[in-house]
Fold this protein.
Amino acid sequence: MEHNIKSLGEEMANLASEKTAIEDAITFSKQEGKYPPPRVTEWLKQAQKIQYDVTTLLDENADERADCESKCTLDCNLCYCYERSRIVAKKLDKVKQLLSSSCNFPDYVFATRSPIKAVEKMVVPSLVGQKAASDLSRLLELMNDDVTKRTAVWGMGGVGKTSLVKNLNNELFSSVAHSFDLVIWVQVSRDLDLQAIQQQIAERLKLELCAGESTRSRARKLLQRLMMTRKLLLIFDDVWDKIDLDTVGIPQGGDHPCCKILFTTQSFSVCREMGTDQCIKVDLLSQEDAWSLFATSAGNVVEIEGIKSLAREVARECCFLPLAIKTLGKSMSGKSEVELWKNALCQMQRSSPFYKSIENEIFLPLSMGYNSLHCNKLKQCFLFCSLYPENCSISVTELIQCWTADGLICENQTLEESFNHGVALIDILKESCLLALGEVTGTVKMHDVVRDVAIWLSQREEEFGFSSESEVSLHEIPKKFQKYRRVSFLKKTMKKLPSRLLECSKLTVLLLQGNPLKDIPNEFFLELRELKVLNLSGTQITSLPASLLQLEELRALLLRDCRSLERLPPLGALCNLRVLDLSSSPIKELPKGMGNLRNLSDLNLSRTHHLETIEAGAISGLTGLENLDMSFSAYDWDCAAEQSAAYGELLTLERLSVLNIRLDRVDCLVSSSAWLKKLRSFSIQVGPRRCDAKQHPIPCDEKRVTLRGVDLLDGELEGLLSNASALDMVACGGTRGLSEVASQRQWYELASLKALSIE
């Protein structure tokens, strides 16, 4: 028995060692999605049981044997030893059988595997500038924040989002204090592929997935494995669409309270759809940091006399965008000839990718934002913005007018509906970092490099027919212009137009504003039968030719700030005209035939300081008019001559919803209360002509009344004031105190008033 007990102890030690090895192997296997067969599980149960039985047996054997030796006879002792020895021998055989059977288990159970690194270091350049360092510090705070579960890093393409997050990854790699058990980097493709995402996560986990396995089956395996990790960070780079984390198999919320999601995206709408807790926007570099990055990328060549000033100009053409700065800097590295730098500057100013690396490394990546736009019309809205010059603040109102006139927004809706639709499209472009807010309220702008990409795309997307040729004049129109439909020569210092355009029969948009044009040849418009948008704002033209009347498809005629324009031809033939802007022009008389423009919905006559004559019926004939702006116009509605349009014509405009107008007196408003109530917004100024007065910006739902030099006790104010939401009183009289005014009946009707200004 002593021999068997000794042997049993040795074999039990071997069994314990074997059991531990198998359990460790199973733990590693489970991390790869492999689970032991039932016989291995059964073996572990038997090993556990025999360990308990043998321990109990040996403890009992020692106690009972001592008791037996003190009380029993020799025969009894021998009997006991024989029985115990037989039991010990059986246990010994059982242990040997278990050890022998473990040799037949699959090899993978015993395979030795390298542990999964918590963080894998990535190759990435160091961050540039204080702002980037601040963003990194903020990200680290959010990663250690127990409340924030989902964080987005967003911004325009090439601004450094991926570099920022890669630097974060390496900070976690270097820090011994970081709290994540596992950080997984996933590179997302432009066309969202959930199985490709699952495969990247599985490879990081060393988890085998079958090629033909369904997404759901893969998700189940990933979820089981990820749930084994105590604290987890998943980084998704370059996300263009919402990722369904449940479908991928990523634990969330209560399932795994210590799982964090971090992703980079160019679209703010993705941030919203992904339900982020925090969003960090990566901005452009400062001027100092931009030059530092360019000099580092280009090398010592930028210090050469004669090149340094050119290098700074080339760097400025990159407009503080890190991707463009690094790519262009590297492409100019080692180039010490001044001529090469002059050529680079010239080509950049022409929006031309003069090196293949610029096209591949800047234009192609930045064009992904364009490719992500969900429909062709939205893409064309984006390309339309490239028709405006660089660094240009584009009026949102004008842009939407042009989009609608050109058919990019449905015209079979009200002006308000079209405007709202346009604002929604602009919002999509802004959230995709393809447009940004302009310097002036109510404007947007396009980053210069993004504009370069848009021009490059216009040349590739020929079916859309956009052209913003900076170096071509209308006198030198090449044959390729035959296929163009939207052409811009905006602010090109063009002084003269060709007598006739023969190569542009498909033209729908012609932007000529801001040129010092003085005359338009008589036959200039004869071939432009398809033209829908014509913008001559800010030119020096004195009149328009009769050939303009051939433009039967024209929807928008913009003549704003034409300071020399004194007369217009009769416009009644432009039967499809919807927008006419004559603001800040010196016209004295509204064109003849205006009353025939049944489709005109937007008429801007603001600041027409010399307007004296509007023929009778010209306004009442505009049955489709929805927006009339005559703020600070000189036209006198109160003393209109017999053959001139009177205030009563306005009351016949059933579709009118927005009105800005100046009146000398309030007499004509006595019976207008019910009509004014139907308007969505208005700005009515009552008082002497003050053409230099400042105009308040009118919110879309505001009804503003401005009283200048008016008798406040005039009973005829009642109908006007009862509809006002904002009231300005300037140098008004009739009373020495507001208490007298307040006692008048009409002042009890100001239930809608939200703002009051007394001056």
Residues 677 and 723 are 6 Å apart (CA to CA).
